[in-house]
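Continuing from the previous page of notes. For each protein in this section, the sequence appears first, followed by its C-alpha cells. Read the first protein now.
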Amino acid sequence: MFYVVSYVITTLGTFGLIMFLARGGFESEEISDLAGLAKRAPWLAGIMTLFMFSLAGVPPLVGFYAKLAVLQALINHQPDQLYRAGGDRGDVVAGRRLLLPCAS
C-alpha cells in the first residue's frame, strides 16, 4: 500500500507541475519543451528533478523506499516467488546477466 500511495502522490505531483507550466503559457508536450527550464524557473526545475528521481527510485527519495519495501515484502513472505520474478531466462541487474532458477 505504501508503494501505491507514494507512486500516486509522486505521479500527481509530476503531472501537476507539467500542467502548472503549461498554464503559464509554456508548452510542455514533449521532453524537448522542458529544455532551459532551469534558467527560466530554477525552483520548478528542482522540484521536477526531485519528482522524476523519486519515480526512478533514486535514494534517498520516497520512490526508492517504496520499491525497497516491495522487494523486502517479497523476500520475507514469499521467497519462492522471488525466483519467478526473474523470469525463465533471468534478468539484467546492474549491467550483468542475473540467472535465477525458475521454481515451478
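Done with the first. The second protein uses the same format. Note its length before scrolling.
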Amino acid sequence: MRIALIHALKHSITPIEDAFARLWPTARLANLLDDSLSADLARDGALTPAMTKRFLTLARYAKAGGADGVLFTCSHSDHALRRVPATLRRCRC
C-alpha cells in the first residue's frame, strides 16, 4: 500500500518514516513537502482559503500519483483537512 505523507516542516519527515518502519514496515511511503505552509500560516495568522486550496491540491497530487492513503503530518491544518476526504472521493485525478 502506498501512503503519501504531506509535510509542512522538513524535520517532520524522519520521525514519521521511523514510526512507519517500526509500525507498518510494508507501507510504501511517498513524501511531499511544502515548507512554506507554516511560514504562510505564521504570516497570515489564520488558515486562508488559498492555503486550504493548497492542502487540497497536495492531496489530489498525492492521489494522482497512486497513493492509497494520504496522511498530513502537520497539526495546524484541521479546517482544511476536514474537506480532503470528501474532495478525494469526488476526485477523478
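What the second structure shows: The two ends are 18 Å apart (CA to CA). The chain has a mean pLDDT of 84. We return to this in next week's lecture.
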